[in-house]
Amino acid sequence: MIRSTVVFLMCGVALFVVLRSGVRRGAMVTSARMFERAMANRTIRIAMVLVWWWLGWHFLVGQTVDPGGGL
Predict the structure, then answer these.
(1) What is the pTM of this model?
(2) Domain enclosing residue 49, as ranges
């Protein structure tokens, strides 16, 4: 238990050091800006529509369609 606590604290200290030393103010990209830049490309927009369609079909429609009749 002591060992795992020490490892956890060391990871926290390492994360703090990396964040304080390596990142300049304003250098982090927000997810909204990244999404906006990706949506500027037509190919990526089409791919995103296809991904959302695939997810919707497999997780929403796929669970409600019963090919065996069920009754």
Answers:
(1) 0.45
(2) 29-59
